Each structure stands twice: as structure tokens, then as C-alpha cells.
Amino acid sequence: MKRVFLILLSATVVISCSKSGGSSAGKGGSKGELIPRNKSKSFVSERPYGMVAIPAGSYVMGLADQDFTNTPEKATLKTVTVSSFFMDETEITNAEYRVFINYVRDSVVRSLLAEAAGDGSGAGIGSFAYASKKAGTTPNAYQEFMESQGGRDGYDESKKLDWSVPLKWRTSDYPDAQYAEILESVYLPPAERINNERIIDTRKLKYAYNWEDIESAVKDKSRGAKYLKKESIAVYPDTTVWLKDFNYAYNEPLYDGYFWHSAYKNYPVVGVTWDQARAFCNFKSKLKSDYNESLKKKKQKAMSFRLPTEAEWEYAARGGKENATYPWGGPYLQDDRGCYLANFKPKRGNYIEDEKKGTYTYTAPVKKFPKNGFGLYDMAGNVAEWTESPYNNSTYQFASTLNPYLSNQAYREPRKTVRGGSWKDIGYLLMTGSRDYERKDSARSYIGFRTVQDIPEGTAKYKKRTN
């Protein structure tokens, strides 16, 4: 009888536990079924500002028209498939790139001030101390732990900058002598100044970031910090390209003011190397990520921004048209009114021909020529554009037909594919299938770039930016 009582008592305990709601088999009402906690709503991808959605599709990649030069750049045609992505509707402009430059400048200055400010006591430079050093700030448990461990590689929570305190740039507003000493250290030394003009020493504007060498990690079947590549890139564009590219031309006005003058704010940035373009992509990704982290209601982590692959660029340039010779589709460089459809060199030695036909001496402001079927401007002419892809004469032969990209050569190959032709090129280089290249450490007065962002395959639709 005693044994029967113990069995009944055990059964009661089991039943009571199963009704207590503490089971990990699923939330209440699941009846023991495997039901994900996440709601089954379709994912909607938010379109970033200034970008357009390029739908997935297939196309015949390569130069389908007659190759007048008979060069090895022309490869065997083949059909490839490209996934959907967002792409900048215009090339990155001087105004957009200056946002990047100003961020790097302010980061360098704030870091120097924070190091000198110590514990943040006192007025003046003390207000620029690291956020964790300021009186009244209490580190949380995670911050205390990480500080006790010496921080983590690549980031130190204790050295988080306080961006809420505005910088003082006017010499009359400097709060103290120590602040003045630090600010003056980022300007050109007096001995190097021209007409005693105080300008920022652009050699000190370096952007530091990490990226993962995924190809090497996959090859080694491993992951870890040893596959992180640390970059420190001087990001100010090379303004001397206007003189170096044209030794026997008077381009001094562009050398003096093309990048910083407000008259050129909506012109495409030039003088940017492949590495600098990639650094800009990282900054753009960080900008969005930091904003999402600042929200009380967290958003889905945004996909990173990057340079387009060669296959993505060509697909986007065609604008959804089959065998499009140019982004506008047809084989002609003028419309039915005789106006040019892109900014390029129409004739030998003639960069303008006729101002009424819409041509420019050098680069043109973005959005001055018609957009293609996908809503992209200047996919032909104005400035040629960097792509992520390495350059190789036989690329088309051994690259995949699904999202073609030579990832194992992308970083190591010094030659990068450049697409689209520029303001100084003839019409042939504006063709959607025409290829060119430049070494990644080269900056040119006729090469710019635009960025892309992946769209997850599970995206049901796109929506406009809401912030």
C-alpha cells in the first residue's frame, strides 16, 4: 500500500510540473509542437536614402556588340544571374564624401582631446574627456568586466567618445591653452603653410577599421581574430590628380577647389582610390549601425554597404533591357532632338561640341542626364566607377554563373575592374559591356564610385526610408 501511495505522489508531481508553464517545449498553447516565438510576418527591407532597389534577374554578361579594338578584355558571352540589391542612384558626390572627411577629422580631434583631458575634472578641455571618465557616469556590469580584462581587441568601451560636446574651431572660442595646443597640432605646421593659411593637415585624417578575410577563414575551416584585417586609410581625396592626369593642360582651378568648393558639391567625387572607397563603405555601414543602436526600439541589423561586383554593376547599368548597348538601351549616343545622353568626349579634341546639347568640359553635376530603367543616373559617362571585382582577362570564363565574383582574388589582386567610361572617354567605353581597369592604389580625376547594399532573399517587398 505504501508503494502504491509513492507512485501516485510521483505522478501528481509530474502532472503539476507540466501545468506550471515552466516547460521549454514551447510557449503556452503550443500543445507540445515546435512553434517559433517570432511572429511570422514577412520581412520588409527599408530602402536606404538615395538608393534604388535593383530586382534580381538574369542577363547575358559581356560585350555583345562589335568589338572595334579586338582587345582581350572582350570575353565569351554567358548568361548569369544576379540577386537583388540596393544601389546609389548617383555616384557619391563631393558633399557626401565631405561628411566622411568631417567625421574622420572630428574623431581624430576628439580622441586627442579625450586623451589629454584625463579624468574630466575641471572646465575647458576637461569637458572633452571620455564618456566613462566624466563625473556622474556609472559603468554597467559589462563595462566593468571588459575594463578589468583590458578591453576587447579593436574596441575599448572605456574610450568611448562623448559626441554631445561641440568642438570649438574658432581660435577666439578656444576654452584654454591646452585645447589650443591640441587643435593646432592637426593643422599644417607654419613652415608648410602657403600664404600663412591655416588648413587641416590631411595626412592626419586616417580612418581605422577591421574587416574579416572570409575566404581565408573558409579555406582553413576556422573563424577567429587572426582573420581580421586591420586597415588605417588616409581618406582625403588626392586633389593633385587634375594636374597629374593632364601634364599639359591648365586645370589649376579644379586642383584648387573641385573637392571643397560649394560650387562642386553635387559633382561626383574623384581622386579616390579603391581602398578609400571601401573605407567610405565601412563608414556608411557604421553610421547606420550606430543609429539603429541608439533607438529605444531596436531595429534589425542593417546589411553592410559595399562596392558593387562587376556583374552587379553591368546588370544595373542595363536597366532591365535585353542586350542594351548603353544604359538607355539604344545604340545611339543622342536622343531624337540631337541631345547627348551622357557626359563624354564626343569628338577628337572636342569635349563640349555644343553646350545646347548638354555636354560639359569636365565632370557634370549628378542627375543632369536621363536615368535608366532602374532609376540610376550616369551609369555611362561622367566618371568611371570602381567595382569590388578584381580584373582579369579570363574573368568571365571561370567565374560562377550565379552572382559572379572572384572572392579569392578580390583583395590580393592589385588591378580592379572599372566600369562606365568617363567625361574624357569616347563613346565606346560607355557601352554597358565595355571593361577597363586601374590599380587599386591609384587615384584618378575620372574615377569615382557608388555603393550597394544587399537585400535579403527573404524580403517580401521594399519600403521607403522612414527616418
Automatic annotation (TrEMBL):
This is Serine/threonine-protein kinase pkn1. The keyword Transferase applies. Keywords: Kinase, Transferase. Residues 50-452 form the Sulfatase-modifying factor enzyme-like domain. Its EC number is 2.7.11.1. The lineage of its organism: Bacteria, Pseudomonadati, Bacteroidota, Flavobacteriia, Flavobacteriales. It holds the Pfam family FGE-sulfatase. InterPro entries: CTDL_fold, Glid_motil-assoc_lipo_GldK, Sulfatase_Mod_Factor_Kinase, SUMF_dom, SUMF_sf. The gene is pkn1_1. GO terms for molecular function: formylglycine-generating oxidase activity; protein serine/threonine kinase activity. NCBIfam families: GldK (TIGR03525).
